[in-house]
Amino acid sequence: MALNRTASASLQLMSRFSLLFVVTVTFSGHSLAQGTIRYDAAKQIWQISTGEMTYAIGVNDQHALQTMYWGRRLEGASAMTTPRAYPETASFDPPVSTTPLEYAGWGGGLTTEPALKISFPDGNRSLVLDYVDEERTAGPGGEQLEIRLKDRLAEVYVHLFYKVYPQGILARWSVIENRTKASLTIERAASATLNLPPSTHYEMNWLTGRWGAEWQLHTAAIQAGHTVLESRRGSTGHQTNPWFAIGQAGETTEEAGPVWFGELGWSGSWQIDLEQTDSRRVKITGGYNPFDFAYPLTAGQALTTPVFYAGYTGKGRGEASRILHRFQREEILPGAPRPKLRPIIYNSWEATEFNVNEAGQLALAEKAASIGVERMVIDDGWFGQRKNDHAGLGDWYVNQEKFPHGLKPVIDRVHQLGMDFGIWVEPEMVNPDSDLYRKHPEWAMNFPGRPRTEARNQLVLNLAREDVKAYVLAFLDKLVTENDIAFLKWDYNRNWSEPGWDSAAPAEQKEIYVRYVDNLYSVLSELRRRHPKLEIESCSGGGGRVDLGILKRTEEVWPSDNTDALDRLSIQDGFSHAYTPGIMVAWVTDVPNFLDKRSIPLEFRFLVAMSGALGIGSDVTKWNADETALAQRMVAFYKTVRPTVQQGSLYRLVSPEGSEQSAVEYVGQDGRQAVAFAYLHSQHYGEPFQTVRLAGLDGAATYRVKALDAAKAARLPEEMTGNELMGMGISLRLAGDYDATAIVVEKLTQ
Ligand code: DGJ
User: Fold this and answer.
1) Is the pTM of this model over 0.90?
2) DSSP H stretches of helix in 287-357
3) What is the rounded distance in angstroms from the CA atom of residue 242 to the CA atom of residue 207?
């Protein structure tokens, strides 16, 4: 095991270096519209600019790499002076703590959060990282800077990578390399540290949740001390998403003011530590979660961290999300820079739960197709002895009682109906009541001799094991090869409990936190390589695994099992701060809703689901003629605005938080179409719906204005200028509880 890792880590490093070429000019830069890295050799300062942001670092008089600046884009010659370490402010605050270090080792008296902590075999745990050299390279993907640091005494090297993306995003990660002759143990490895200038007025946004209630947006002042966003659960988690945005209190709003933001690309245990230091600086350190972490490196081995993405805008939280959305579409998602539009899915889960069978699924498929659905997905229950959640996970053969002729007749009929076919899997799990568990009890994650904790009657397979990885890849490959499957809904319905790995040497068992996720990524990538047309949804009992790591390998996500349209407005609003609505699958489901018992009219449910990737999860066979006709009209309408919703620029016009009304708008990439959705959650005192002022339009252009329902937008002119739409806005006649509508504007002039 260790040998493999050594070989692959150093090979990865070597191949990366040999492919790149070194930029030798001492002060070089590309066009300002692009990402650019400018190096001032005399001052030893690198100035990295992209989008609205400049990020600057320099080597100080103590040979340490320190942050010089992160904020508004700087142009032209820099007024930055030669970097100097900050002084000791008191005997309790040494220079390593007062200086905003780029990547601090735990050593030299560091009292703030370290980026790297290492235990050496002789008991030493001190690490002081000095600057060694740098290498700038340019490739098709953009410019990249590598800065090498080394411990003052030991042959431990840290390679800091900075990759500049044109959308205004800087990607940072590190490679920690053991060139000593002995083994050492990494106890904490961050991808990067980001430093903000001193201020006591920072305000941060972050997202928390739980099953059925993900994506809740919080805003709070950053206080002295640490705010820790993290997952210790082995996966990204519903509870906190690895995203943050920081503004200035009293200055930053949805559409104005500075926002520093970041997002971590890792689907395992992670941590983002936001620390207001004694000097009132905010220091953000993100990467592997140090909790229960220990990663041994034998001589010659290296560990690569996840990627921490960072950005800055002066145009408020809305622009911060738009930068992230564009970056995700153009750089992260499969198919980037032009990911495919999401098809309209029908999913059987809420309609049938485990009670799936050939006749039932075919009846749903027939009706779904008549409504305009494009993809039929059979959810949980089709395999093994899966009658409920007590049995079957791990046994990925088609259940003969439910599908006596296999999946083929269903898939063939789905194709005849003009849809493609998808199916649910939960590859990383096993029920103790399964053939797989009876054959391989040792494959479940555990501490030998200790009780195993079940959740939803299931255990987590230890995907860090190569035999488990091979099994998972083989069954998925077989399933997709033998059946014409266009789509997998990849579920993951519990967190880790006893994260043991008894077949590994004791010193290596905690590698599970890294190796499990590496193997998950490798199975996903290999499956996609073998089946290039296959699309995958990341689901983890809802939105428990949404991050930029999984999104490199999955087209879409299921943000929540909560499909109540009112709750969904908040869930979708929160989600949109961190991720593009183009990947946010949203089903229309039956009422009363299974969770909130709320009954919301069908049109409102459709209009809420339409603000992401529309899907249907109702028992459509029970829809009457009126409901069916409404659904057909809604689906047809969605198809006319789908590229704008899924790939346009999102403006959160009126937030649903603490409001009885909300509105959201999308402007298409070419600016020719915009669509606004307005929702009245509950009317009080007969108050009119607030004027909806659009955003992001061309002020001087004329637009044709169309209402989805003319009666809800009375006295709407047929044509308006962009300035009129953004200034005078649109008056809507929404009334009562759960009334909603949509307005589409189309540009008539160039
Ligand atoms: C959890 C998912 O979030 C649901 O949509 C459904 O697929 C169930 N699992 C099936 O067990």
Assistant:
1) yes
2) 316-327, 349-352
3) 8
Nearest to 36 by CA among 135, 160, 163: 163
Closest CA to 245 of 720, 626, 689, 577: 577
- As a whole number of angstroms, the distance between CA 202 and CA 3 comes to 46
Q: How far is C-alpha 619 from the geometric centre of its chain's CA atoms?
A: 30
Q: Whose CA is nearest to atom 2 of ligand 1?
A: 541
Residues 394/395/401/405 CA torsion (nearest 10 deg): 120
- Strand spans (E) along 166-249: 169-178, 184-196, 202-208, 216-221, 225-231, 243-248
Q: Can you tell me the distance from the alpha carbon of 406 to that of 399, in angstroms, rounded to the nearest whole number?
A: 8
- Closest by CA to 13, choosing from 167, 169, 185, 178, is 178
493 lines ligand 1 (CB under 6 A): yes
Domains along the chain?
3-332 (2.70.98.60), 654-747 (2.60.40.1180)
Residue 467, number of CB atoms within 10 A of its CB: 12
Tell me which amino acid residue 224 is: A
Pairing of strands 65-72, 307-313: unpaired
In whole angstroms, what is the distance from residue 588 CA to residue 635 CA?
A: 11
Cα of 519 vs its chain's centroid, Å: 19
The owner of tokens 């992160």 is 70
Helix (H) or strand (E) holding 704: strand 702-707
The pLDDT tens digits for 585-637 are 999 999 999 999 999 999 999 999 999 999 999 999 999 999 999 999 999 99
Ligand 1 within 6 A of 547 CB? no
Higher pLDDT, 414 or 7: 414
Burial level of 664, CB count in 10 A (0-12/13-18/19+)? Answer: buried
**Residue recorded with tokens 């890295």:** 37
How far is ligand 1, taken at its centre, from the CA of residue 292, in Å? 29
Could you tell me if 29 and 37 are in contact, meaning their C-beta atoms sit under 8 angstroms apart?
A: yes
Query: Distance between CA atoms of 85 and 62, rounded to whole angstroms?
Result: 6
How many Cα atoms are found within 13 Å in the side-chain-facing hemisphere of 441? 7
Report whether 250 contacts 534 (CB < 8 A).
Answer: no
Question: SS in 3 state form for 327-343?
Answer: HHHHHHCCCCCCCCCCC
Active site residue 561: yes
Q: With beta carbons less than 8 A apart as the criterion, state whether 303 and 8 touch.
A: no
Q: What is the pLDDT of residue 11?
A: 32
- Describe the strand order of the beta sheet including 556-557 as a list of residue ranges: 556-557, 535-538, 487-490, 420-425, 375-378, 345-347, 613-616, 585-588
Q: 202 pairs with which residues across the strands?
A: 248
Residue owning the nearest CA to atom 1 of ligand 1: 541
134 lines ligand 1 (CB under 6 A): no
Task: Using the CB atoms, write b or e for 365-390: b if 16+ within 10 Å.
Answer: bebbbebbbbbbbbbbbbbbbbeebe
- Give the torsion through C-alpha atoms of 483, 487, 489, 490, to 10 deg: 80
The pLDDT, as a whole number, for residue 8 is: 37
Rounded to the nearest angstrom, the distance between the alpha carbon of 451 and the centre of ligand 1 is 26
Q: Strand pairing of 216-221 and 420-425? A: unpaired
